[in-house]
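Reopening this one. Same input as before:
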Amino acid sequence: MGARGRHGELLEGDLCLPFEIRSVNYFLTHVSHCLTSWLMIRSFRSKPLQKFAVTGNGSKLPVPAHSYGKVRRQLAALDAAAQPDDMNLPGWRFHGLVGGRYAVDVTVNYRLTWGWADPDAIEVDLED
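Same output, byte for byte:
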């Protein structure tokens, strides 16, 4: 890598880049996630969950912060799912609900729920 300045920025000749390479990787990963997160999830019932899916800000989610990673993985799996049964992964306790909705466990008390309008997940929510 190039030389580092006084504050840790990368120095490339006369060009100072005030960010670390890992910041660039994080930014590109975040942008990639945002661009692909709408492919299969068509709508959300929960505004805080939608905000979390788009920005990664889980401050308004009703689940504890240590569960954000699991919610993120479940949203990514739901986004990639071609049918509801694709969410039947070990430890998630996939099950059907009344009214054509589906659910997986997030915590003991909360479930990620959604409806299905082929080929998209609709009305995604976090329910107690």
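So the earlier flakiness isn't reproducible anymore. For the record, Residues 22 and 114 are 34 Å apart (CA to CA).
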